[in-house]
TrEMBL record, chain A:
UniProt family annotation: Belongs to the TRAFAC class TrmE-Era-EngA-EngB-Septin-like GTPase superfamily. Septin GTPase family.
Keyword Cell membrane among UniProt keywords: no
Superkingdom to which the source organism belongs: Eukaryota
UniProt-listed InterPro entries: G_SEPTIN_dom (IPR030379), P-loop_NTPase (IPR027417), Septin (IPR016491)
Coiled-coil ranges (or none): 321-413
CDD domains registered for this protein in UniProt: CDC_Septin
Protein name, UniProt field: Septin
Keyword terms, alphabetized: Coiled coil, GTP-binding, Nucleotide-binding
Organism this protein belongs to: Oryzias sinensis
Residue span(s) of domain Septin-type G: 39-305
PANTHER family: SEPTIN
TrEMBL record, chain B:
Protein name: Septin 9a
Listed Gene3D superfamilies: P-loop containing nucleotide triphosphate hydrolases
Record organism: Oryzias sinensis
Keywords assigned by UniProt, alphabetized: Cell cycle, Cell division, Cytoplasm, Cytoskeleton, GTP-binding, Nucleotide-binding
PANTHER family associated with the record: SEPTIN
Entry annotated with the keyword Aminoacyl-tRNA synthetase: no
SUPFAM superfamilies (UniProt xref): P-loop containing nucleoside triphosphate hydrolases
Localization of this protein: Cytoplasm, Cytoskeleton
Length: 429, 338
């Protein structure tokens, strides 16, 4: 890579000129490093693995500290990701370390969707960076990078082969993040079984086309150690924060009745190799691969999905901006249309309700009219009856007056008449 | 291979509550190995530096470039013409070189502006230069917004513009003021007093004071700009520099024997001026500033401030153009005046 770099530069019209004295730009790497030191570094690790594989313990062992948290329960309904950020400092280097743990991975009965929340999380970090990059007023140099730089995949120490969940998950993640597979709790496997296990795992990964992270071998100073380490993947690790006295030193170890597994002993496990590769040799390369490969891939796919294209140089100016504007207007138009539809639907409903209410009102009116009419009829009848009664009373009164009159006349006409009448009456009887 | 076992005390800053943790154990993790990793990466990739030189012809621009980089990097050295004709209009000529020192590779591009200030009527002579600088920003922006973009976007942006002030000894000329006023807004300007061997020390101090006053009164911010000082330490260092600019320089690519040593200098009948002797001229300060201490800072200010400003302006411009086309009223700021 170094040679092609020079060739490219030379090819672009630059000529190599010799210097006749000390200029001083050999201090550039120092200037660059100083700037980065002042700025601080950040590194984000994602731990994927079933509950109980010792992820938290391994992280504590790697970074020599007790990160907070209690062991998770096994009854999570789905896979969630929990992330914690810590600030570590060693000599003059400040590191903002973010550890993301998968909670509940592999615990469900149906694990078909287990990988989804992990993929979504990784994509969300890329998206956040992309959003910042696309902003008009942006602050990229002070942006807290949350993109995942390394994914440690914990394989259960069954000794046989990878689980199908492992294969499926790793296949989904290999184009989004640097995967470093490790065999967890490897003190449960014997040395001979371990060798077979590693070979099986590697061949399964290859035959399924899973791209795990390869330590870079293009830089001569680290090519040798990196290629050796590549052949030791996956690393069989043991984690422990407890210390045991061996000889006259306190070392991190796990103590069993039949012996003590020393974490930092390369004959016992690959912990030292993992630490060497992850932190001391390739941290910067992991960050670079994340930015130049995984992030670029995400960005390309996302922009193409949103409808942007790299047009030819003539119509180049801000195809991004114009397309964005066009899409925004399209979206606004749709929004307005939807709004209009909703408004119309609302108006419709109101009309219907209004009609219903009017109907009801009408009915009520009719009822009222009917009742009123009934009432009037009744009233009329009553009046007629009253009239009839009055008439009767009048007639009666008339008859009464007439009768009285007759009586008076009869009395006046003579008592005889009455006597006569009486006699007649008596005779009659 | 690199396992250190000695204990290193580690502290953490007593700031926040929710996510700061303390390193209680005293073993070595190896986080600081990242510095070495970064250094390796930088050495492998190499660096780029683009310097522009602006000034009337005859002020020693090419010689100064050759002196700064101790090799024939100037345009004249590369495109050797027997007669140097003053062009009728300003031309922008850039030449790139690959230089290497102690394993550090650098692609140095020197951008020359022959014809600047040489006409009878020099109105708007800064325009081609402004255009060139903005074109470089534009090229970078275009590459950056591509969907398929290069792994390393080639950086042709002008990191630093050295402006040559003729050693009149009095004050800045209107051309100087106009140029620096406009260009200090888009690029880092480092003004220097050219051919300073014609000024005595007193004349030089007087001239510098006058220049600084004029820069201040015209609101011209030259590098290192006060507003971009990062912290107190930065400010302290930069204040010292600001009290010394513009540097009075003398350039030479000829070596002479002085007191048994071979030094770069200019030989006259009355003595030899040693270019790298700070008692004679301030070339060494300029070299230290530009190359040995502030090179990264100059590039950072170009990329995170000047370029970003250009980008904001450009994106807003395009935004208003599109919104106007759609009949939506615009509320954006108008474009930066040239």
């Amino acid at each position: 890579m170094a040679s092609t770099e020079i060739a490219r530069q030379a090819g672009e019209g630059a000529r190599a000129v010799p210097l006749s004295g000390h200029v001083g730009f050999d201090s550039m790497p120092d200037q660059l490093v100083n700037k980065s030191v002042n700025h601080g570094f950040c590194f984000n690790i994602l731990c994927v693995g079933e509950t109980g594989l010792g992820k938290s313990t391994l992280m504590d062992t790697l970074f020599n500290t007790k990160f907070e948290g209690e062991p998770t329960q096994h009854n999570q309904p789905g896979v969630t990701l929990k992330s914690n950020t810590y600030e570590l400092q060693e000599s003059n280097v400040r590191l903002k370390l973010t550890m993301v743990n998968t909670v509940g991975f592999g615990d469900q009965i149906n694990k078909e969707d287990s990988y989804k929340s992990i993929v979504e999380f990784i994509d969300a970090q890329f998206e956040a960076y992309l959003q910042e990059e696309l902003k008009i007023k942006r602050t990229l140099h002070s942006y807290h990078d949350t993109r995942i730089h390394a994914c440690l995949y914990f394989i259960a120490p069954t000794g046989h082969s990878l689980k199908s969940l492992d294969l499926v998950t790793m296949k989904k993640l290999d184009s989004k993040v640097n995967i470093i597979p490790i065999i967890a709790k490897s003190d449960a496997i014997s040395k001979s079984e371990l060798a077979k296990f590693k070979i099986k795992i590697t061949s399964e990964l290859v035959s399924n086309g899973v791209q795990i992270y390869q330590f870079p071998t293009d830089d001569e100073s680290v090519a040798e150690i990196n290629s050796t380490m590549n052949s030791h993947l996956p690393f069989a690790v043991v984690g422990s924060t407890e210390e045991v006295k061996i000889g006259n030193k306190m070392v991190k170890a796990r103590q069993y009745p039949w012996g003590t597994v020393q974490v930092e002993n390369e004959n016992h496990c690959d912990f030292v190799k993992l630490r060497e590769m992850l932190i001391r040799v390739n941290m910067e390369d992991l960050r670079e691969q994340t930015h130049t490969r995984h992030y670029e891939l995400y960005r390309r796919c996302k922009l193409e999905e949103m409808g942007f294209k790299d047009t030819d140089p003539d119509s180049k100016p801000f195809s991004l901006q114009e397309t964005y504007e066009a899409k925004r207007n399209e979206f606004m138009g749709e929004l307005q249309k939807k709004e209009e539809e909703m408004r119309q639907m609302f108006v419709q409903r109101v009309k219907e309700k209004e009609a219903e209410l009017k109907e009801a009102e009408k009915e009520l009116h009719e009822k009222f009219d009917r009742l009123k009419k009934l009432h009037q009829d009744e009233k009329k009848k009553l009046e007629e009856k009253k009239k009839a009664l009055d008439d009767e009373v009048n007639t009666f009164k008339q008859k009464k007056t007439a009768a009285e009159l007759l009586l008076n006349q009869a009395q006046q006409a003579g008592g005889s008449t009455t006597l006569k009448r009486d006699k007649e009456r008596k005779n009659f009887f | 291979a690199q396992c250190f076992e000695f204990p290193l005390p580690c502290y953490s800053s007593p700031i926040s509550f929710s996510f700061i943790n303390h390193l209680v154990d005293f073993s070595y993790v190896g986080i600081d190995a990242i510095l070495e990793q970064m250094r390796r990466k930088a050495m492998k990739q190499g660096f780029e530096l683009n310097i522009m030189v602006v000034g009337q012809s005859g002020l020693g621009k090419s010689t100064l470039m050759n002196t700064l980089f101790k090799s024939k990097v100037s345009r004249k050295s590369v495109l050797a013409t027997s007669q140097e004709k003053i062009p009728k209009t300003i031309e922008i000529k850039s030449i790139s070189h690959d230089i290497e020192e102690k394993g550090v590779r650098m692609k140095l591009t020197v951008i020359d502006t022959p014809g600047f200030g040489d006409q009878i009527n020099n109105e708007n002579c800064w325009q081609p230069i402004m255009k060139f600088i903005n074109d470089q920003y534009e090229a970078y922006l275009q590459e950056e917004i591509n969907i398929n973009r290069k792994k390393r976007i080639p950086d042709s942006r002008v990191h630093c513009c050295i402006y040559f002030i003729p050693p009149t000894g009095h004050c800045l000329r209107p051309l100087d003021v106009e140029f620096m006023k406009r260009l200090s807004k888009v690029v880092n300007i480092v003004p220097v007093i050219a051919k300073a061997d014609t000024l005595t020390l007193e004349e030089r101090d007087f001239f510098k004071k006058k220049i600084r006053e004029e820069l201040r009164s015209n609101g011209i911010d030259v590098y290192p700009q006060k507003e971009f000082d990062e912290d107190a330490e930065d400010r302290m260092i930069n204040e010292k520099i600001r009290e010394m600019i513009p540097f009075a320089v003398v350039g030479s690519d000829q070596e002479y024997q002085v007191n048994g040593r071979r030094l770069l200098g200019r030989k006259t009948k009355w003595g030899t001026i040693e270019v790298e002797n700070i008692a004679h001229c301030e070339f060494a300060y300029l070299r230290d500033l530009l190359i040995r201490t502030h090179m990264q800072n100059i590039k950072d200010i170009t990329s995170s401030i000047h370029y970003e400003m250009y980008r904001v302006r450009r994106l807003n411009e395009s935004n208003t153009a599109v919104t106007q086309a759609n009949g939506i009223p615009e509320h954006h700021l108008s474009a930066h005046e040239m």
